């Protein structure tokens, strides 16, 4: 028997739009019931199985709670594996990203907390736009290439968002 689908572990239908609160609640419930500590007095095999299940559950949760990872996973379920090395073949998007990175560097150099907040809101809006576009296109085979392009863009914006969080932490210190 193969590994169950991440969505099936949480009794969810494979879709990009998922109820994050429901996902978190089901994760906490499953994690509590299957936590390896509950099997401390069990046989070695049961302990190993509990550890494996816990690891699978944690991985599935991490994938499903992240929009870019969930999008990649959905495409993989449809047979579209994205290469990590593939770059965005979209000059306009690349120029936009270079501009965003330069803007973030300027905010960092100037220690501009207010500017970082404005930047973060714009970035969040761009992420939401991409997520909506992906949600509308991922399940249409005719739009597979567009969906893959959107996932790559999501991954880039997610990485940029992580950099913004690190900058905020440095500015708060």
Written overview of the protein:
With 173 residues, this protein is mainly α. It has seven helices and no strands. InterPro entries: DnaJ_domain (IPR001623), HscB (IPR004640), HscB_C_sf (IPR036386), HscB_oligo_C (IPR009073), J_dom_sf (IPR036869).
Write the layout of secondary structure elements.
Layout: H1 6-9, H2 20-34, H3 44-65, H4 67-77, H5 91-109, H6 113-137, H7 144-172
Helix pairs in contact: 2-3, 3-4, 4-7, 5-6, 5-7, 6-7
Protein name: Co-chaperone protein HscB homolog
Family: Belongs to the HscB family.
Function: Co-chaperone involved in the maturation of iron-sulfur cluster-containing proteins. Seems to help targeting proteins to be folded toward HscA.
């Amino acid at each position: 028997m193969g590994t169950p689908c991440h969505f099936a572990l949480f009794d969810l239908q494979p879709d990009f739009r998922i109820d994050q609160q429901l996902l978190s609640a089901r994760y906490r419930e499953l994690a509590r019931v299957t936590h390896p500590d509950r099997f401390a007095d069990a046989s070695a095999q049961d302990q190993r199985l509990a550890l494996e299940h816990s690891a699978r559950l944690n991985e599935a949760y991490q994938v499903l709670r992240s929009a870019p990872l969930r999008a990649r996973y959905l495409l993989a379920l449809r047979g579209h594996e994205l290469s990590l090395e593939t770059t965005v073949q979209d000059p306009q998007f690349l120029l936009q990203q270079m501009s965003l990175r330069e803007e973030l560097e300027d905010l960092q150099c100037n220690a501009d907390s207010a500017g970082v907040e404005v930047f973060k809101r714009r970035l969040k809006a761009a992420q939401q736009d991409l997520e909506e576009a992906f949600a509308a296109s991922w399940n249409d085979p005719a739009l597979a290439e567009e969906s893959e392009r959107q996932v790559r863009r999501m991954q880039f914006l997610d990485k940029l968002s992580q950099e913004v969080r690190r900058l905020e932490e440095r500015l708060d210190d």
